[in-house]
Write a structure and sequence with these properties.
By secondary structure, the protein is mainly β. The protein contains no helices and 22 strands.
Amino acid sequence: CWNTTRLPDGRLRILSGFSRNYVTDISPDGRTQTIDLHQRGMKGSARGIISMADGHVWVYGLGGAYQFDSQFNLVREINKSSGLPSDRFRHMLIAGDGTIYIASLGMGLLEITPQGIQTIYNSAQGLGDNAWSLAFRNNEQQLVVATQEGAVFFDTQSKQGTLESRHGDTKLTLRSVKVDVNDNVWFGTRNGVLKRPPDGKYKRFTT
């Protein structure tokens, strides 16, 4: 199981599988419906799912990102066949204005506007080529990107990123990121958890 979400109508939606990918919806009365995403056109191994308010569904993973309608008919796919140098996607967020942000391995950060304009931000802009996870800050004005090279704070308006690559003498190799209600940024690493308060002073938690 890669992802579990509760839909507004009470259904539980589960993304599962590895060599094949399945979405299972479980209704409040216990009825189930399972969709084989490979039969619906998806390629590769899924890593996450986003269910939109309008009924559309995005599934992303190591083979691109795929948009389905409410009946899981394929609407759109974003991968190498659409001209990208990499389609190994680790995380995906959709902003309130419809802009799509994708963290990828080998390509960095991919931005897709509602008009379909695709822009790649990576080592050429100091962001690094291997992005693992994303989180919004400050009402989506900033995107925090967890990368193999460190933490990138990306301004979604100016399109400029600031890289924080070290905690003391330790290089920041990050795998996941979350932002809490107090604006603390939490990073998952290979050696525990890092907390970055608004003052920018990192603190490490280990077992």
